[in-house]
Design brief:
Helix content is 26%, strand content 38%. With 128 residues, it is α+β, with helices and mostly antiparallel strands. The chain has a 5-stranded mixed beta sheet. The mean pLDDT is 82. The longest helix has 20 residues.
Length: 128
């Protein structure tokens, strides 16, 4: 399956709800630096993309996209989470010291078991 491709039929409402919980937990784990917790939310063969071509990266690279170990630690504040079938969009702000703030939108695809299968990350280019 290509990231973003709609599965037919979509997962049940219960699986979508589990996926929403996993998306929310992924930010909590990322902010806490809990890589084991974060990894537990990932599908066996995740497909994540921040910049560049989509490819099945090693799990360690997926974790680096979701919870970077380089650079300042910060916190994610989710402003909105929208779910439709196997697609979950999370929009929010990432704040890191000193006074660095960036808006982001992550578009997740969940697997049939609710685990995080794919993600595309977008950042705002507006500065305040």
């Amino acid at each position: 399956m290509v990231l973003g491709e709609r599965r037919l039929p979509p997962p049940s409402d219960a699986v979508t709800a589990v996926g929403v919980d996993h998306v929310r937990l992924s930010y909590l784990y990322a902010d806490e630096g809990d890589l084991e917790g974060l990894e537990s939310l990932l599908h066996e063969q995740p497909q994540f993309r921040a910049v560049g071509p989509l490819s099945p990266p090693p799990r360690s690279e997926v974790l680096e996209v979701l919870a970077p170990t380089r650079g300042p630690r910060g916190t994610h504040r989710l402003l909105r989470v929208i779910a439709d079938g196997d697609c979950i969009a999370a929009v929010g702000r990432f704040t890191a010291a000193p006074a660095t703030e960036v808006e982001f939108a992550d578009i997740f695809t969940i697997a049939d078991d609710g685990l995080l299968l794919g993600c595309r990350r977008f950042y705002s280019t507006n500065s305040r």
